[in-house]
Amino acid sequence: MDKKLVYFLCTGNSCRSQMADGFLKRLGSEKYEVKSAGLEAHGLNPRAVQVMREAGVDISGHTSDVIDPEIMKSADYIITLCGHANDHCPVVRNEKAARFHWGFDDPAKATGSEEAIMAKFREVRESIKNRIKQFVVEGK
Question: What dotted CATH number matches 4-138?
Answer without folding.
Answer: 3.40.50.2300
